[in-house]
Write a structure and sequence with these properties.
With 294 residues, the protein is an alpha+beta fold. It is 33% helix and 24% strand. It has eight helices and twelve strands. Helix 5 links the parallel strand 11 and strand 12. The longest helix is centred in the last third of the chain and has 21 residues. It is globular, with a radius of gyration of 25 Å.
């Protein structure tokens, strides 16, 4: 089966700058380590994409058409199909006073962000700072080695692949997501670890929207995607009472002390709530690891 527009697949790639041979991105953890670009925050391995959905560069999408599962190819991508040509208008002069207001001491090569647009300081002269807001790979010819690792045909796996694409997190397990597809509606209950995510609510909403859009635009007969958050009570009151009565008095006293400590923690300032949430998340993760070891 050959790749066509709209297909879900898993893609391996390594990108280099043609002129220098410098590796700037890869899905291979070993290559990233060898090239000195390994990132602890990145999840390595074949990435899920939809061909034609803009998840990768246009030049790569075009090269994928008619490839078969397991095929490899080297693709040369000119600037117009990569990160564009360099735009002189993206070079801006900013008064030194603006940096002082922010308590910053600008230096050549320093990365900054202005209105959520990343830039690099190129020069400092006469009380003005020249900042380059072009993409770091703009104007460069690129070379990608790509491999179609898998063409995804199962509907549930397609949905899981979009979750992992838009919500990458090494602590989240794909098989922990509960997914149902019924009468044109997809219902997603994500792995419980996502409940402890510290991202702003608006960011999580956008992530969910992107997942939903990719699903309904590329899966037949899907018109609605619903995300469900479920909080389940783990132990009922009767079980707690029974357990308490069956243990020695000194143990009950220890439990009472622990309850008092927890109650005191809950009443602390709101600024400490994030720390408590992080602890809960770590406990869930540790419990999951222990189960795997067993």
């Amino acid at each position: 089966m050959s790749v066509k527009n709209g297909d879900f697949l898993r893609l391996e790639y390594t990108g280099k700058v043609q002129e220098t041979g410098e590796v700037f991105d890869t899905t291979d953890e070993k290559v990233a380590e060898e090239e000195g670009i390994l990132s602890e925050n990145k999840v390595y391995g074949a990435i899920p994409i939809i061909v034609g959905a803009g998840h990768v560069l246009k030049g790569i999408e075009e090269a994928l058409i008619d490839m078969d599962e397991g095929d490899e190819k080297t693709v040369e991508i000119p600037p117009k199909e990569g990160f564009g040509e360099r735009d002189p208008k993206q070079m801006q002069l900013i008064p030194m006073s603006e940096f002082r207001k922010q308590g910053l001491k600008p230096q050549v090569g320093m990365s900054i962000s202005l209105e959520n647009t990343p830039g690099v300081i190129r020069s400092i002269s006469g009380g003005r700072v020249r900042v380059d807001f072009n993409h770091e790979l703009a104007g460069k010819n690129l070379k990608y080695k790509i491999q179609v690792k898998k063409i995804i045909t199962d509907d549930e796996e397609k949905i899981r692949s979009m979750i992992s694409l838009h919500y990458p997190n090494p602590n989240i397990e794909l098989d922990k997501h509960q997914i149902t597809i019924d009468d044109g509606k997809v219902t997603i209950q994500m792995d419980e670890m996502t409940k402890f995510d510290k991202k702003p609510y608006v960011d999580i909403t956008f992530v969910r929207f992107r997942i939903a859009r990719d699903i309904w635009e590329n899966m037949e007969n899907v018109e609605k995607v619903e995300f469900v958050d479920v909080f389940e009570k783990k132990v009922n009151d009767e079980a707690v009472n029974t357990t308490t009565e069956s243990v020695p008095e000194e143990v009950n006293e220890e439990i009472a002390e622990e309850v008092a400590e927890v109650t005191e923690e809950i009443s602390q300032e709101a600024s400490e709530e994030s720390e408590e949430t992080e602890t809960i998340a770590e406990e869930v993760l540790e419990e999951r690891i222990e189960k795997k070891e067993d």
